[in-house]
């Protein structure tokens, strides 16, 4: 820079123009050096680093490149050059140094933030990330680093020690607690969720209070992101999973079976004792032949042993169409390919209500996939609705508009016939 001054003096220019012209030339030279250094670092050094990382067998190298970690760090080179040339301008040396240091701190913060994001991406390539997510913890680290960086920037600009600013933060602790309330609650909730293994990425959770019913796709410091089955996204506060109840279907998904728990409502007026004709017809049913033979033998032995008069159907033991139908459903499910035979399977009667007698099926499918589960369940009930009349069973259903119209039509026909006869 002294060379520039001497060169301008030797050119015998107006002394009043030498100083401002020298400053302009110095600024241009520093700018050219910064541009050249930036070009060298981005176009040459970065390409060499990218080639080394690409050719290496390190699987997370591409993640660092995608996050542009080194490229963001390269922005620090011009700031270092400007800081080094600050003494060239004695009048503005202090201001230039402060601004250069501020820029260096900001670039450093951007670099650290990018590095933290890259670490999270690298961690997510491992299976343990679904069980123990660390995104919330990294966000806490990021907040702490950004806070420290902000303090360093302010202390550098005002020319005071960072400790002075830190001592003043104690007085603002109440305000900070209010500002970072959600972050603090989210941090505590994240620790509890992870420590107790309450929820993982990929879990199907259901939280009706917030309208969430789908798969967890992200767990962060403040929120848990759930993609519902209609492809909408629900954002849940992390602490809501601690303070409120929710359903996690992970146990069902890992068990290998999904529960079917539905009832057929039987019209009680269709329940009767089995006649001999009905028994002869039932014994030809594939899933009932062994059951009918065994039960008939037991009932006959019991009635003969106790000398029961079967002329009255109320006396002794006898088969009922609802009992035979229940046995048929049980045997049908035991031979169904879509039902998990190693899990609970039963057909039971529930308490009678105004809708009839509930005959509940309690079983588990072989698959936990939603589409397969619904297909198996639908196939089973399609068959049962179709086969119920073969047992003399009527499934209960409230009268529809068509039923009422038919009843009214029959009533009108009866009245017309009576009038004609009259």
TrEMBL record:
UniProt protein name: Mechanosensing system component YbdG
Which parts pass through the membrane?
20-41, 69-89, 101-119, 140-158, 164-180
Alphabetically list the UniProt keywords: Cell inner membrane, Cell membrane, Membrane, Stress response, Transmembrane, Transmembrane helix
Q: Where in the cell is it found?
A: Cell inner membrane
According to its UniProt entry, this protein's organism is Neobacillus piezotolerans
Mechanosensitive ion channel MscS domain location: 182-250
- One GO-annotated biological process of the protein: cellular response to osmotic stress
Q: Which GO terms describe its cellular component?
A: plasma membrane
**Membrane topology type:** Multi-pass membrane protein
What range(s) does the Mechanosensitive ion channel MscS C-terminal domain occupy? 262-394
Question: Which protein family is it in?
Answer: Belongs to the MscS (TC 1.A.23) family.
One example of the protein's molecular function in GO is:
mechanosensitive monoatomic ion channel activity
């Amino acid at each position: 820079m002294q060379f520039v001054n001497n060169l301008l003096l030797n050119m015998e220019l107006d002394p009043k123009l030498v100083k401002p012209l020298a400053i302009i030339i110095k600024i241009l030279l520093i700018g050219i050096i910064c541009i050249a250094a930036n070009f060298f670092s981005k176009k040459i050094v970065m390409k060499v680093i990218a080639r080394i990382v690409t050719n290496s067998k390190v699987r997370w190298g591409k993640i660092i490149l995608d996050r542009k970690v080194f490229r963001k760090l390269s922005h620090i080179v011009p700031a270092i050059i400007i800081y080094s040339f600050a003494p060239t301008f004695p009048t503005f040396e202090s201001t230039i140094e402060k601004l250069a240091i501020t820029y260096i701190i900001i670039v450093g913060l951007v670099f650290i933030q990018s590095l933290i994001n890259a670490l999270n991406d690298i961690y997510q390539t491992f299976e343990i990330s679904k069980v123990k997510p660390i995104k919330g913890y990294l966000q806490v680290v990021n907040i702490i680093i950004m806070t420290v960086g902000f303090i360093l920037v302010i202390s550098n600009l005002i020319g005071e020690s960072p400790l002075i600013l830190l001592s003043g933060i104690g007085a603002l602790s109440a305000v900070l607690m209010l500002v970072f309330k959600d972050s603090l609650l989210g941090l505590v909730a994240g620790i509890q969720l992870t420590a107790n293994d309450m929820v993982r990425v990929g879990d199907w959770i259901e939280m009706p209070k917030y309208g969430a019913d789908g798969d967890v796709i992200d767990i962060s410091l403040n929120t848990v992101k759930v993609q519902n089955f209609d492809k909408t996204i629900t954002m849940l506060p992390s602490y809501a999973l601690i303070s409120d109840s929710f359903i996690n279907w992970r146990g069902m998904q890992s068990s290998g079976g999904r529960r079917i728990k539905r009832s057929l409502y039987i019209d009680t007026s269709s329940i009767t004792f089995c006649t001999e004709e009905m028994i002869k017809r039932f014994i030809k049913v594939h899933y009932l032949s062994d059951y009918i033979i065994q039960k008939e033998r037991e009932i006959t032995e019991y009635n003969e042993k106790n000398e029961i008069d079967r002329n009255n159907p109320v006396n002794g033991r006898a088969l009922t169409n609802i009992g035979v139908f229940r046995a048929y459903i049980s045997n049908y499910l035991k031979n169904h390919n879509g039902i998990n035979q190693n899990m609970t399977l039963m057909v039971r009667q529930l308490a009678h209500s105004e809708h009839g007698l509930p005959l509940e099926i309690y079983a588990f499918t072989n698959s936990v996939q939603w589409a397969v589960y619904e297909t198996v369940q639908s196939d089973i009930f399609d068959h049962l609705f179709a086969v119920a009349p073969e047992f003399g069973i009527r499934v209960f259903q409230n009268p529809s508009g068509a039923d009422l119209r038919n009843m009214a039509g029959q009533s009108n026909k009866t009245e017309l016939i009576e009038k004609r006869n009259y």
